[in-house]
Every structure is written in C-alpha cells, then in structure tokens.
Amino acid sequence: MSTKLNRSHIVHGKRALILPCLGRTEKDHEKSGEQGITVEDSMSMVHISYGMKEPASPHLRSECSVLAGMAQATLPNSKTPWQEYIDDYDRIRDTMQRVLEGFEDFNTRARHPHGFRIAQPPRERVFLTSSGRAEFSLAPLPDDTDPGEGRLLLTTIRSHDQFNTTIYSNDDRYRGLKGLRTVLFMNEDDMKERGLDEFDLIDITSFSRDGTTRTVYGYRAVRYEIPRRCAAGYMPELNVLCGIADISTQSEQPVTKHLVAKVAASASKRS
C-alpha cells in the first residue's frame, strides 16, 4: 500500500501488487466527516494529522478504508465492525484505548496541541527488572560471523535523504557522498587486496544459504572506515542480493544486515 511510486516497487520480483492510497497531506472525507489519522513522530509523540490538499484522484481511498474493505470482502462473518471503523476513525482509537496500556482517553489526548508521549519506562528511569535497576548481560557472538575466505559480510543501510524505501535525493550527508547510490562502502585494506581504487567499478555476488548466488553489476567501490571483511551498501538497491532462504531463524525476517558476498572488479574494468 503506497502513497506514491518509489524504487522498491520494481525490485520485489516478477509481480507486485501496488495499492494506491491517500497520503497524509490529502483530505480524507468519510461518512462522519473529515478524518484525522494518528501518527507518531521520532520522539514518540502521538498526535492527530489532518490533510490539507484535495486528493490526487477522487478514486483514492485511505489506508483504513482499503484495509477494512479487504476485511469486509474476505471475512463476511467477522464480528468486527469494519464499516463503523471506516465511517469514523475515532472508533478505531476508542477500541485501541481499551486494549493498549498508556492509550487511555486516546482521542482527547491525541488532539492536544502537541499530542502526548507514549510511555517509556526506561525514559523515566523505571526499570522493570527484579532489582528495579538497569541490568546488563553478556551474550556470545553468533558462530557465523566469519564470511569465509575472500568474502565479505555485507549489510544494507539507508542514506540521509531517505525515509524507509522512499529516496528523496541521491545525496548522503551522513557519509559525505553526493549524486550516487550504486556504491559499496569497503575497508581500505579489503579494497587493496582486490586491486581496487576509489570509485572503481565492481560486481557484487551474494551467496545464499540455499546454495544460489545473486549478482549486481557496475557498482562503485568507496573507501570507508568500516571493519575489515565487512561492507555496506544502500537498500532497497541491494535487497536483490538477499535470497529467499536468507531469513533469521528467530524472526523469519530477511537478513539484509548479514549477507555473505564476494566483490570483484567489474567485467568492464578487467577487460
């Protein structure tokens, strides 16, 4: 479900289902009138957000409307009042306050000028431990941190001008890079071992747990202060290197932070 097209829509596979929906900046009119959605900012503050612009299309529906509509179509015997939720989003918040600790009087508090902050015990120096104090423990490193001879352990990262998979520019103020995203940040010694200079063209091949490989071509090697035998590149571009078998045994999520890869000068450079 997306408010706008972005690059991640073309890297999921041969087929992708894109459900367009209203953005936060667009007005959302339902049966009970104009609706406000609840958002949380990076400081854990929750408030109501109302759109200011007319929708890009009269056919666009809100995320709430799309999800509830899907539920109505697939769960005809559901006792959940989906249509009531669509008609008035306050009813969604009323339900949330009954089941979520810290969301009491949700609708009123979310309409305060600055909203309200989600309760975070450690922030208030409240530690829910047997001692009542912060407790730290040692944990052994996983046994698969060695990528193997001649290989690197690759992680995907976001740039400064990026929010999730939405890329606003090709600049990265965090790492001093401008106008380029098809790069791999590497340790200087790892680059020397492979005969690479700054911004040389490279091909990156990943080795999946199911024995398959995936390769991206024509990236640039960038010298960076990163531990030896480690490398980093941008997502979603490098998500293609993560195979279907490359998932966490605990969360079953893709291990795009823990990919085994090989880096070599690109075919065009070698020739």
Commentary on this structure:
By secondary structure, the chain is of the alpha+beta class. Helix content is 16%, strand content 22%. The strands form 4 sheets. The chain has a 6-stranded mixed β-barrel with strand order 6-12-9-11-10-13. The longest helix has 12 residues, at 63-74.
Produce the secondary structure layout.
Layout: E1 29-30, E2 33-34, E3 37-40, E4 45-49, H1 63-74, H2 82-87, H3 90-99, H4 106-110, E5 116-117, E6 152-157, E7 162-163, E8 166-167, E9 183-186, H5 188-193, E10 201-207, E11 213-223, E12 230-234, E13 259-265, H6 267-270
Parallel strand pairs: 6-12, 9-11
Antiparallel strand pairs: 1-2, 3-4, 4-5, 6-13, 7-8, 9-12, 10-11, 10-13
| Approximate helicity band | 10-25%
Which consecutive residue ranges, at least 5 long each, have pLDDT under 50? none
Major sheet summary line: 6 strands, mixed, barrel
Class inferred from helices and paired strands: alpha+beta
Tell me how many strands there are: 13
Total number of helices: 6
Question: Percent of residues in beta strands?
Answer: 15-25%
- Compute the separation of the termini in Å: 44 Å
Can you write the helix and strand succession as a string?
Answer: EEEEHHHHEEEEEHEEEEH
Mean pLDDT: 92
